[in-house]
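Fresh eyes needed here. Have a critical look at this protein's tokenised backbone.
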Amino acid sequence: MKRIILVTSVIGLIVCFVLFIFNLKVSSIPFFKELLSATISMGAIAVGFLAAAITLMPTLQSNDFLADLKSIGGYEKLLNALLVAIAILFILCLISLTGFFFNINKVNTYTTLFLYVWMFFFVNSVSLVSYVVGVFLYYLKSTSSDK
């Protein structure tokens, strides 16, 4: 899991570096406040779904899929990935919420720094949710092909 966090962080830093190279500012993004609002909504929905998945996993102990998942060691890996994805999505929602307190029409160091931080966590959250889905599909395929 540490390797995945490192890879997603490097991807996020590369995206932020590209934003810096092209000198992209918050004021140059049309409807940025609406984008923040949509990020909060989608992030909260994703946190809810992932949290529901975590709460359902222990209740389905008699499920054949979860028994197979535990036997091949994927249960802990999937659970850790879910927890990290929830944490990053929740941080993204909080960062997006703080964006409503900035005046994006006035470009300064704070708004530029906010854009870089927001983009870093946005890229990380998309990457980690994609990783969770990929891990789940991998284990779903590997446990179903055994039978």
The CA atoms of residues 58 and 73 lie 15 Å apart.
